[in-house]
Specification:
heterodimer, A: alpha/beta, OB fold (Dihydrolipoamide Acetyltransferase, E2P), Ubiquitin-like (UB roll), about 20% strand, B: mainly alpha, Ammonium transporter fold, two-stranded antiparallel sheet, 14 helices
Chain lengths: ~450, ~325
Amino acid sequence: MLRTFRIGGIHPPENKLSAGKKIEVLATPKQVIIPLGQHIGAPAVAVVKKGDLVKVGTLLAKAGGFVSANIHSSVSGKVNKIDNALDASGYRRPAIYIDVEGDEWEASIDRTDTLVKECNLSSKEIIDKIAAAGIVGLGGATFPTQVKLMPPPGNKAEIVIINAVECEPYLTSDHSLMMEKAEQILVGVTLLMKAVNVNRAVIGIENNKPDAIAKMQQLAVNYPGVEIMPLKVQYPQGGEKQLIDAVIRRQVKSGALPISAGAVVQNVGTAYAVYEAVQKNKPLFERVVTVTGKALANPSNFLVRMGTPISCLIDAAGGLPENTGKIIGGGPMMGKALISAEVPVCKGSSGVLLLTKEESVRKPMRDCIRCAKCVGACPMGLNPTLLMSCTEFKNWELAEENHITDCIECGSCSFTCPANRPLLDQIRLGKGKVMGIIRARKS
Amino acid sequence: MENSLYVSPSPHIHGGDSISKNMYGVLIALIPAFLVSLYCFGLGALIVTATSVLACVIFEYLIQRFLMKKEPTLCDGSAILTGVLLAFNVPSNLPIWIILIGALAAIGIGKMSFGGLGNNIFNPALVGRVFLLISFPAQMTTWPVPDVFPMTYTDAETGATILSSLHEGGAPLPAMVDMLIGRIGGSLGEISAIALLLGFAFMLWKKIITWHIPVSILATVFVFTGILYLVNPTVYVNPFIHLLSGGLLLGSIFMATDYVTSPMSKNGMIVYGIGIGLLTAVIRIFGSYPEGMSFAILIMNAFTPLINSYIKPKHFGGK
């Protein structure tokens, strides 16, 4: 029996069209647009100005607070301007435009392919290097990694859990990374273990990636304390709380941090970025992005420099199909629908998914028939249809009483609903409202 | 290009489940039971079912179109299902005019007066059935005797059901085998335990329903009647007779599991099932009616909102 999380969950069609495709290096565009807010927390503060010359890896903006992250240049060239640019959120926000000239890297970056296993740095030095490299959670949540590695007082890390489940349909960036950079990932994992002073790490991989499981298992024997755990395919297993439940059978209490269960969860892509930052002095300025969709000619996995417009990725994968209805940044369950293909690739961009016009339209909604399928699907054990009604009738007390703030916005309820009710749309609204009320009450 | 993109919040895909898929799924699950009743009650079964389905569909259409002035939603199959379930709960020799009244009560009072599918408090087919049982007690309790494809309808030969003869206190009980395959008297669709269980298995396989409600009802009835049987086997019958007779299987598999009128959490479903099981057994053994399934379900339907507000799903990370 393979493990999985114990409450709810769904199994959407996997559609991993780009599985098994090698990671291709995408050509550098003529201009990159690097937003200052690519992570959760305060936006970074620009340290360059118009006309400055930068190299690949040059610091462009430094963290703007405790929960924030540095941002580095992904290209060499000249800063064209610092201006508002459309990002994945649909808003225009400050970004640094760089006109690309050549491809000159900072001298400190080790560009060789040699695997560096040894590391004599202390925990604090590792964390400092991770912070300096601007690493954030690469699964899509983009929480600054160094913050997660510094547990608040009173909490002690017992285990590092690596999220390699890639439970979102279509996406294969983590899968391809494991196939090509397995050894580097494992070194990255040991660095994370050292950073939080634990001697056990589990890499959770869903069972639909048997080649990655085999490869990682074969190499992991050389890394004491690192275990590969195949998991049953179940969405949303990549949710932090769900993964902790699946791997160590502990449920993080409502409103508590994962560290309260002794777990530090990091994405597999993050582990790779940690390896590059600590062992190769390479800041986070490029990442693997899956470009996929049923109508797309050539679904692919690309190694992309941050700030590259998404249109460049689509062109490289065979061009925008005629009947494209939606461009999604991320996967189909939790990704964001983009309003333009000119949005740049950011640290949190795990994929670009193109849906056809037919796939993009929701079916008409009917009255709730109280079939309770949403209740069965909810991985947080909530009653989505009740929470939707609470929002519709603005009954915020009842919503709070029924734990609306625990919703992880995975979308399993809306996906399941036979009456096509937009459960998550409404719950998201209500959750925002209730969180506002709670904040106001505390202050 | 820029303006032709759809933008909506996630999730961007849907599992493809729909109300009609579930309704037609239940109808498919009812096919074995219908075939058995065709075999045993012949022409009568056909006429009663066809009349009931047609009447329910037409009443739903008329009410939606002319009273509620909404777009009719006939294609979802829920009116067909109500029609079939109403037919399955009446004798196969019931005259057409009584069936029409039952269909009007089921659709009009049971369903549409609350606002249609999803808003009703009571199971519509049972509202129709109980309406008829109270209004036409004689016609509703004369049961045709099973035969082989009989070409009879209201002229069918009638006899007692197991529960009614138990209630009268007489008549020998049929063999267990006859109860399993359906060679017994009773309402049109309730006679064959095997056919109904086949439908149950199908619905579990297709994830249309979960096991919680039917199993908790059956277990409760079994335990309750079993205790009485152990205490005094001369007065109380074998619990297996209770499981296989009357509308217990039809009710617990197809009527108590109605989405709209049953609780939403798993624990709530079990409480609801235990309630139905207890009420059914109490009515059967101590009440003045021989069968209590319909009343038990309707009473627990009324408790469903209460169960929903007190018994919540198991919350992640909760105590």
